[in-house]
């Protein structure tokens, strides 16, 4: 497989890096402490085309490939994973789902403003009783003729309060199991929607995570995505690509922490020499670099397969489980390389360590990725 990056890829990578350093780095510690959503930064990202990167320009997107998306996600995540999760949800769950399976009318009405970054979207699958076991949907979308009547609760929803458009997964025919589930486009300001308090989280504290309650919410039938009963397949197909985004987020968190560890190890002196000259530290850095490179190659492989319209479910799950476990390990070691300084906020690595943990949980836990991989390799 050819991993040669084009001039355009390098340009996008640089644009994302410049944005992260100039717009995200200032204030990242404060936003984390205050759990502050990066509203201004997300607006600017949208104006630069980073919220609809892979969407066809005729729908307001940047028309780029998935490799460009991986590169941009890595650069943004090196500095601020609270911003990159919003970017990931909007690009790979919301825009991709709408562009791939939406009607022309749905694309004109919802995809265009989402791809231009004028508004953001959210993806509502998880429930208090249905996380990994995603077919056990309790939220109902009762068929009332020309509309669905929605009741139930979704939780852990990224962009839950700030999004204008929700892609909601709900059960219509309980007797049909996964084939009775529908995907609906719901406008956040619809009567009957109540947004819960923002979750107070370990990491990605700036990101906007909420429960969403639906009480007799009417959703027009024309807002259903795909055929009746397509909702679960819609969610699974969408998540297959989403997992490439989260894998790239994990890659960025790991490489951000690694770069800081290398820099620090060359500055800090102990026992008369730079700590980078102690073999124990060199070995840590060597292992970090190796695991990060392997994560990057897995992310790029999954992205290339998606761009070539091959099945990327397996490679996306492999990238996600490997990169997220790498991120947790690398960030923990980066704190260790920094000694006591790594334990305080000014040096950034403790935040990256806290941010890394979520990449092993959302968009399918590491255990779920192993289920997907296991089924794929065993047939
Ligand atoms: N593509 C197409 N169809 C798929 C599919 C895929 N990738 N994966 C499953 N399906 C289909 C199956 O073929 C099956 O259809 P048929 O009955 O017609 O064969 C149907 O979906 C049900 O599949 P399974 O029997 O495999 O379902 P399962 O109950 O065993 O669950 C699972 C499988 C992989 C564990 C799945 O439930 C899963 O992925 N769970 C994790 C949920 C998740 O990732 N949530 C993330 C929420 S979004 C989020 O987290 C965003 C964020 O943080 C930022
Ligand atoms: P559970 O499914 O209850 O799992 C608990 C533990 O059991 C895990 O370790 C899991 O791996 C393990 N487990 C479960 N089943 C199995 C099995 N069959 N075999 C082996 N181990 C198993 N969801 C959305 O829909 N949209 C969002 O935007 C979104 N954003 C999120 C943001 C944050 C910050 C968080 C924390 C979560 C978000 N989620 C979102 C939800 C996330 O996808 C779920 O938390 C995740 O899928 C796990 O579900 P759960 O929390 O119910 O854990």
From TrEMBL:
<protein>
    <recommendedName>
        <fullName>Cyclohex-1-ene-1-carbonyl-CoA dehydrogenase</fullName>
        <ecNumber>1.3.8.10</ecNumber>
    </recommendedName>
</protein>
<dbReference type="Pfam" id="PF00441">
    <property type="entry name" value="Acyl-CoA_dh_1"/>
</dbReference>
<keyword id="KW-0560">Oxidoreductase</keyword>
<dbReference type="InterPro" id="IPR006089">
    <property type="entry name" value="Acyl-CoA_DH_CS"/>
</dbReference>
<dbReference type="GO" id="GO:0050660">
    <property type="term" value="F:flavin adenine dinucleotide binding"/>
</dbReference>
<dbReference type="InterPro" id="IPR009075">
    <property type="entry name" value="AcylCo_DH/oxidase_C"/>
</dbReference>
<comment type="similarity">
    <text>Belongs to the acyl-CoA dehydrogenase family.</text>
</comment>
<dbReference type="InterPro" id="IPR036250">
    <property type="entry name" value="AcylCo_DH-like_C"/>
</dbReference>
<feature type="domain" description="Acyl-CoA dehydrogenase/oxidase N-terminal">
    <location>
        <begin position="6"/>
        <end position="118"/>
    </location>
</feature>
<keyword id="KW-0274">FAD</keyword>
<dbReference type="InterPro" id="IPR013786">
    <property type="entry name" value="AcylCoA_DH/ox_N"/>
</dbReference>
<keyword id="KW-0285">Flavoprotein</keyword>
<feature type="domain" description="Acyl-CoA oxidase/dehydrogenase middle">
    <location>
        <begin position="122"/>
        <end position="217"/>
    </location>
</feature>
<dbReference type="GO" id="GO:0003995">
    <property type="term" value="F:acyl-CoA dehydrogenase activity"/>
</dbReference>
<dbReference type="Pfam" id="PF02771">
    <property type="entry name" value="Acyl-CoA_dh_N"/>
</dbReference>
<feature type="domain" description="Acyl-CoA dehydrogenase/oxidase C-terminal">
    <location>
        <begin position="231"/>
        <end position="378"/>
    </location>
</feature>
<dbReference type="InterPro" id="IPR009100">
    <property type="entry name" value="AcylCoA_DH/oxidase_NM_dom_sf"/>
</dbReference>
<dbReference type="InterPro" id="IPR046373">
    <property type="entry name" value="Acyl-CoA_Oxase/DH_mid-dom_sf"/>
</dbReference>
<dbReference type="Pfam" id="PF02770">
    <property type="entry name" value="Acyl-CoA_dh_M"/>
</dbReference>
<dbReference type="InterPro" id="IPR037069">
    <property type="entry name" value="AcylCoA_DH/ox_N_sf"/>
</dbReference>
<dbReference type="InterPro" id="IPR006091">
    <property type="entry name" value="Acyl-CoA_Oxase/DH_mid-dom"/>
</dbReference>
